[in-house]
Here is the input.
Amino acid sequence: MTSSRITVSGIPVQIDRKPIKNLHVGVYPPDGKVRLAVPLKTTDDAARLAVVSRLGWIKRHQKNFQEQPRQSEREMVNGESHYVFGRRHLLEVIERYGRHELEIGPSDKLKLYVRPGTGTEGRKRALQRWHRELLAARIPALIAKWGPKLRVKVADWGVRRMKTKWGSCSIEARRIWLNSELAKAPEECLEYVVVHEMVHLLERNHTAKFRKLLFDHLSDWELRRHTLESVYLSQPGQTELQRWA
Ligand SMILES: [Zn+2]
Here is the structure.
């Protein structure tokens, strides 16, 4: 891989030339640094053109990073907002003996039941486990719905926390992984990520064939992805821009 630098409209851009087929642009936290990965033979002029054509998108994401209050981590205390499938809920912590539990109460509050003395970390773990349960309850139906449509078999799936991706897959094992953070985004975003990973079982890379498959089956996939990125970025404490790997 070789790297070079160009400046486009005052924005410094790092260009990484790699043995890849498609160009890929990313804006990265915390300060909105722009990196462009391009196929080996791409000239600086072609790279510049690619950046120019995406300037709107790049600036939008950079603005998101700048406006992002560098808010500290969630403290898991009363009144804090938490998103569940795209809806904002205010947290209510209720101490009681027994199993840690979460539920959305009648007043739309997110109720967290924990044993007295449970600290921030313990509360977070309870929330994360609940996120995994919420997703686990929905994923099998999505796989059952999309398997026949895409003509692809998923042998196994799982939910885990991922720092840089919404989903991933193992083509050999025919297994897909979903990021537990997806429980915060609207359900159509979860469906998009499930379909995206299932399409990878048919086509490993983000080729034209991949995009056609995705578009043929989920024509609004770009909108769903945009929703996912914008909703996620609008949430305090979340500064990571997720790109597809
Ligand atoms: Zn992908």
